[in-house]
Amino acid sequence: MKNVKNRIAFVLSLVLFVQALAIAGLAQELPRAKPEDVGMYSARLSQLSTTLDGYVKNGQLAGGVAMVMRRGKIVFLHTFGSRDREANSPMKADSIFRIASQSKALTSVGIMMLQEEGKLLISDPVSKFIPEFANSTVAVPKEGGGYDVVKAKRQITIRDLLTHTSGASYGGGPAKDKWDAAKISGFYFSDRDEPIGETIKRMAALPMDAHPGEKYIYGYSTDILGYVVERASGMAFDQFLQQRILDPLGMNDTSFYLPMNKLDRLAVVYSAKDGKADRAPVEGTITSQGHYVNGPRKSFSGGAGLLSTPGDYARFLQMLLNGGQLDGKRILSRKSVELMTTDHLNGIQFRTGQGFGLGFSIVKDVGVNGVQSSVGEYGWGGAYHSNYWVDPKEQLVVVYMTQLIPAGNIDDYGKLRAGIYSAIID
User: Fold this and answer.
1) Closest by alpha carbon to 382, among 283, 311, 305, 289?
2) In whole angstroms, what is the distance from residue 412 CA to residue 74 CA?
3) Which of 415, 422, 383 has its CA nearest to residue 301?
4) How would you label 238-256 residue by residue, b for 16+ Cβ within 10 Å and e otherwise?
5) CA–CA separation, 3 vs 93, rounded Å?
6) How far apart are CA 24 and CA 353, in angstroms?
7) pLDDT per residue rounded down to tens, the chain (426 residues)
8) Burial bucket for residue 234 (CB in 10 Å: 0-12, 13-18, 19+)
9) What is the C-alpha separation between 7 and 13, in angstroms, rounded?
10) Best CA proximity match to 251, nearest among 301, 317, 305, 300
11) What span, in angstroms and rounded, lies between the C-alpha atoms of 409 and 142?
């Protein structure tokens, strides 16, 4: 009898444990609402589904996922096409995507968290944490060709990195020969068989493309920030993100490298060719499954290295829209989010109608910007043709994920934006 009671007690404990896991899983789900309940029109969103499906039908995309949240609730979630077209594997809401430069937003948030904790100031010189940057140089083009290498007018600051005004490109500037010789070019880090810090320290010795604070130059700035996070926090960068951002926000499918038990969820990369999405032909490169699956798993690129899902990334963005917190977990203060989402370029040339904050582009003038948007909207995208934006005025979060590199002249971004804003009816 005692053994029977013990077995019954064990079974009941197991049932309660499973139920607890289920509840914990549900807690990570974002709430949903009928579009009309939050001021949007179902019929227009339905038309958007048809529009997105059309890109699959005409062969421009293999598939994708679009998610729209308004007032903290999902009102539109459309999966279309295939995760792997050749294997006849359908796209699903929990498919995993290479988000490339969408990684930059998480790294930038990590920096702001450390400022709140007194571990750094964004006005600090980078050399305070990475001494190799104490004597930065700049390549200055000469008339008739070539360049001179001169000492930078001042040290690079953390704020310069956050705003991409550090002078660091992706290795394609005047001193491209030196960057190529150092084997540091392009955004792809997943195949590197060295820790990110070693790459960054070698990078510090190379001539930058401009003096700090003088030009917006898109490149390795956020990768450098990832190593700053390591040095300032005393934690490996992947562990910092996991413990301080991903776990608290319930971003359970976001990582630098793919766990092998999730291999069947990774979306295949395609490349635009003659207006159609062709399967990328070369394994082990940026245009394939690549080293996110079978690489050295050593290089944690804060600028372009993460994998994620639409749901995970929407949780991150909703946290920002909420002023730094989600589901009772505070990541940042409201004032830090406000600082991040304000233009910091002070007249430095960027995109027409836009500025740049601490990790995001910022809409400054809707008319000059020329598309449906709101002043204060912030967002960015990734090299694999993923995109996101947050519109605080409309309390709107948009996540759009596909895998197409290069993307060619596809106009899906514009159609997505037009379809979403046309559905707002309040």
Assistant:
1) 305
2) 21
3) 383
4) bebbbebbbebbbbebbbb
5) 45
6) 43
7) 445 444 444 433 443 333 333 333 333 689 999 999 999 999 999 999 999 999 999 999 999 999 999 999 999 999 999 999 999 999 999 999 999 999 999 999 999 999 999 999 999 999 999 999 999 999 999 999 999 999 999 999 999 999 999 999 999 999 999 999 999 999 988 888 999 999 999 999 999 999 999 999 999 999 999 999 999 999 999 999 999 999 999 999 999 999 999 999 999 999 999 999 998 765 556 655 668 888 888 999 999 999 999 999 999 999 999 999 999 999 999 999 999 999 999 999 999 999 999 999 999 999 999 999 999 999 999 999 999 999 999 999 999 999 999 999 999 999 999 999 999 999
8) exposed
9) 10
10) 317
11) 35
Decide: 199 and 302 in contact? Cβ < 8 Å.
no
- Helices 196-203, 221-233: axis angle to 10 degrees equals 120
In the chain, residues under CATH classification 3.40.710.10 are 51-102+238-422, 107-235
**For 258, how many CA atoms within 13 A lie in the half-sphere containing its CB?**
23
Q: Which helix H or strand E contains 59, and what residues bound it?
A: none
**What's CA 306's distance to the chain center, in Å?**
7
- Fold exhibited by the domain 107-235: Beta-lactamase (3.40.710)
- Tell me the two tokens of residue 402: 């596909």
Positive or negative: CA dihedral 89, 90, 93, 95: positive
Strand ranges for 38-177 from DSSP E: 63-70, 73-84, 89-90, 97-98, 137-141, 147-151
Query: Do 63 and 56 meet the contact criterion of CB atoms below 8 Å apart?
Result: yes
- Residue 203 φ/ψ, nearest 5 degrees: -60, -35
Return the CATH number of 51-102+238-422, one of 3.20.20.370, 3.40.250.10, 3.40.710.10, 3.20.20.80: 3.40.710.10
Distance separating alpha carbons of residues 400 and 97, to the nearest angstrom: 10
